[in-house]
Amino acid sequence: MLFSNFTSFKPINFLLLFASLLFVGCVQSSNTDSSTSKLPYDDPEFKGKIGETYATSEMDWPEMPSPPEGAPNVIVILLDDVGFGMTSTFGGSIPTPNLDSLAQEGLRYNRFHTTAVCGPTRAAILTGRNHHQSGNGFLAEWATGYPSYNTMIPRSTATIGKLMKYNGINTAWFGKNHNTPDWETSAAGPFDRWPTAMGFDYFYGFNTGETHQFYPVLFENTVPVEPEKTPEEGYHFQTDMTDKAINWMKLQKSISPDKPVFMYYAPGAMHAPHHVTKEWREKFKGKFDHGWDKEREITFARQKEMGIIPANAQLSPRNENVPLWESLDDDQKEFYTLLYENFAGYFAFTDHEVGRLLRAIGDLPDAENTLVMYIVGDNGASSEGGLDGTVNEIKALNGIQSTIEENLERADDIGGPDTEPHFPIGWAFAGNTPFPWVKQVASHFGGSRNPMVVTWPKVIKDKGGMRSQFLHAIDVVPTILEATGLQMPAYVDGVKQKPIAGKSFYSTFTDADAQEIRTTQYFEVLSNRAIYHDGWVAAHQHTLPWRQDVAPGYENEVWELYNIEEDFSEAIDLADKYPEKLEELKAIFDQEARKYEVYPLDDRGAERLSVPKPSPLGDRKEFTFYEGATRIPETAAPNTKNKSWTMEALLETDANHKDGVINALGGLGAGYVLYVQNGYPTFLYNFFESDVTTIKSSKKLPDGMASVKIDFTYDGGGVGKGGLFTLYLNNEKVGEAQVAQTVAGRYGIDTFGIGEDSGSPVTKNYTAPYKFAGRINEVSIKLND
Predict the structure, then answer these.
(1) 78 and 42, same structural domain?
(2) Where is the Sulfatase N-terminal domain (predicted)?
(3) Nearest by Cα to 153 from 126, 118, 172, 176
(4) HSE value, Cβ hemisphere, 13 Å, CA-based, for 467
(5) How far apart are CA 649 and CA 729, in angstroms?
(6) CB neighbours (10 Å) of residue 54?
(7) Nearest 5°: phi and psi at 581?
(8) Between 330-362 and 237-255, two packed helices, what is the crossing angle to 10 degrees?
(9) Do 300 and 422 sit in the same domain of this protein?
């Protein structure tokens, strides 16, 4: 017998031995030629021998791709909506001790640039190409059917995730993904442009521009998941994603401690809604009572004192759109200050959580060989809270304002799960000190200049050093490639690649006076545009972020000119003094715009939201959903807004299993829900919390099969108008209510679901998710234009 000599043979021991031998054989690897012309690599040639039996054959394990010897771990950290002058690390008033500590161990960069808005910046960081080249001229929700604006990252601009993965480096993405087309973010996909198809082995986060931090719309890889705790139990997404990131990193290093990893860690912070506990908010009580005008002056002076900006820099002129702090009444000052105290608390909390990640990185067995690139914001501070700020951001984005008095009634709740706060524009301008303008305004550095801190103990020895080379988000990928010893191939997945637009700034790691790598760079978002060339900037501010219906028209454009070699903060407009230089730069902008696919310019704001887009719904007017259809984004759900519609649910229940949600869309900020409570079918319409309409059936739901129907007859005559809701039980009218107005744009950042109310509940009349206890055979929705 084969095992006759193994007198003490134990099957389990043999299997373990066999597995260990197999593992040893599989870990053979090669230092892959990084100059390859394509990725992924071809299957390696078999160099063994195949005989008729194993006795006459020779094994040869395939050599799998592996990174070059000595390649570092790479961690890219990217915050959201942070002004240049917010953090203590760069002269701001919000303490960020963990960012401070990282900067003391590495380098601070004070001339790093983004695109001035989130999705486009992220596309540039991920691909190394300009945002228009990678289809992200603007945000997914505003996509149009032009290659530069469809937000469909083309295969010709492969991501850094793909390059790392195909070279044997494990990859993960945590937090925000705003680079999947809006209409592809449901659990139905397609998944070609999700993180897991863009080169990332693991994804844990959300697929939109923002999410509720207490009730996030979460996906793990491509599967919707729910938080394991409630807000009352201490849940916050920032903590959750940090835990996941640390655990993933530890697992990788537990199994293969010498194998480098690549992590993209992109929190929702500091994007609205600014969610944090009251304890963190109250740490800043009274810290900003001096107001935003004084805050600019304080920050500017501190930045000079710290050497963040040159000694000869001037503070850019205050923006005439921002009210003088001293012109405000006491209620305004109280509310506006409270919103910024809340933001500061959120930022301090975020720094605390990022600090946990940084400490975990410091505990890695190869911490010395770990490159951390911490980009403090994907654009400047946001003015999207408008002139007055808000406690219900989605309401404000729908163009509906609340009074200061209404907002102050909720002062104690600000930052909590029942609010969606955003500060007013004055704080955004202060947060971008010393530069003019804000997020979305790509023409000026207030929109596009973001701090960056880089550490790599093995290579960077100038601890606490400052670097002032002019850099852009597109320069991140080529820098990572040089650091890891990899190159950009000509083909990825069989698709010819567009050349990398960025340039490596690796040279600055060891030389403070390294030569400038970038002498020309264009900027464009919503027709706000600029061109940097050889120390000069030509700039045209076109649209207002808080008033997207205001644009001057292309025939009335006014351009400005700055010599930023002498004028660090764009404080002195030289357009009248040097008109020929201005025309020269405008011509260069046109040249770069054509080269990098910027055209056609489009200054439409909210109007672009209604541009026809691809949809998993097609042009259907009738839909049928079944149990389990949950976490469907609003853009992939039937659009019941601004029209008449009917929903009918076929239910099967018994005396003990009747209650729960039948269908819900939206959350506490705004939404609707059809549910059963104490046996009574109920429909509730939440118009931004200010007007909540409830229709409770006059009869209980009977046992067995039953039909519950809600019919809405729209008043018509425009958008956001009112109408009549009628509730039916087995086709018998059991209630009705007239509403004066309806949501015209979007219900918010939550989702559509059958059989439960996931995430932020539409109402507090029940505890989410309030799953339906009976059986839902189907829910049919019919739209009547």
Answers:
(1) no
(2) 72-485
(3) 126
(4) 29
(5) 10
(6) 9
(7) -65, -40
(8) 10
(9) yes
pLDDT of 673-721, one tens digit each? Answer: 999 999 999 999 999 998 999 999 999 999 999 999 999 999 999 999 9
Domain boundary among 486, 503, 518: 518
Does 104 lie in the same domain as 52? no
What is the three-state SS of 635-697?
A: HHCCCCCCCEEEEEEEEEEECCECCEEEEEEEECCEEEEEEEECCEEEEEEEECCCEEEEEEC
pTM of the model: 0.94
- Cα–Cα dist 41/164, whole Å: 12
Q: How far is Cα 647 from Cα 685, in angstroms, rounded to an integer?
A: 14
**Starting at the edge strand that comes first in sequence, how are the strands of the sheet with 632-633 ordered?**
632-633, 751-754, 660-667, 670-677, 680-687, 691-696
165, 198 contact by CB (below 8 A): no
In a domain, 233, yes or no: yes
Nearest to 531 by CA among 593, 597, 604: 593
Please say whether the beta carbons of 669 and 392 come within 8 A: yes
Q: Is the domain of 151 the same as that of 54?
A: no
Question: Between β-strands 751-754 and 223-225, what pairing exists: parallel, antiparallel or unpaired?
Answer: unpaired
Residue 50 CB-half CA count within 13 A = 3
pLDDT, one tens digit per residue, over 755-767 is 999 999 999 999 9
CA distance 309 to 315: 10
Distance CA 447, CA 84 (A): 9
Q: What single letter denotes the amino acid at residue 303?
A: Q
Exposed, middle or buried: residue 669 (CB in 10 Å: 0-12, 13-18, 19+)?
buried
By CB neighbour count within 10 A (0-12 exposed, 13-18 middle, 19+ buried), where does 233 fall?
A: exposed
CA distance 260 to 165: 11
Domain count, the chain: 3
Distance of CA 538 to the CA centre of its chain: 29
Using alpha carbons only, what angle is made at residue 90 by residues 87 and 91, rounded to the nearest 5 degrees?
Answer: 85
- Does residue 349 lie within any of the structural domains? yes
Same domain, yes or no, for 633 and 755? yes
CATH code where residue 669 lies: 2.60.120.200
The answer as to whether 697 is a domain residue is yes
Considering only CA atoms, which of 712, 601, 473, 485 is closest in space to residue 138? 601
For the domain that residue 401 is a member of, what is the CATH number? Answer: 3.40.720.10
Q: Residue 170: is it exposed, middle or buried by C-beta count within 10 angstroms (0-12/13-18/19+)? A: buried
Rounded CA gap, 637 and 136, in Å? 24
The token pair at 246 is 């640390």
Same domain, 41 and 137: no
35 and 183, same structural domain?
A: no
Determine the Cα–Cα distance for residues 143 and 193; give it in Å rounded to an integer: 15
How many Å apart are CA 609 and CA 605, to the nearest integer? 8
For residues 271 and 346, the answer to whether their CB atoms sit within 8 Å is no
Last residue of a domain, one of 464, 483, 518: 518
Alpha carbon of 573 to those of 119, 289, 655, 713: distances in Å?
A: 30, 32, 75, 56
248 belongs to a structural domain? yes
Residue ranges of E strands in 11-121: 29-31, 38-39, 64-66, 73-78, 107-113
Q: State how far the Cα of 214 lies from the Cα of 200, in Å rounded to an integer.
A: 26
In single-letter form, the type of residue at position 43 comes to: D
Q: Six-digit token pair at 212?
A: 């509720």
What's the pLDDT at 150?
Answer: 97
Q: Give me the phi and psi of 341, to 5 degrees please.
A: -60, -40
Q: How many residues comprise the chain?
A: 785
Residue 35 confidence class, pLDDT cut points 50, 70, 90: very low
- Give pLDDT tens digits for 82-112: 999 999 999 999 999 999 999 999 999 999 9
User: Position 107: which residue type?
Assistant: L
At 521, list the tokens: 């760079």
Domain that holds residue 652: 622-784
Gap between the Cα atoms of 771 and 381, Å rounded: 39
**Residue 286: strand, helix, or coil:** coil
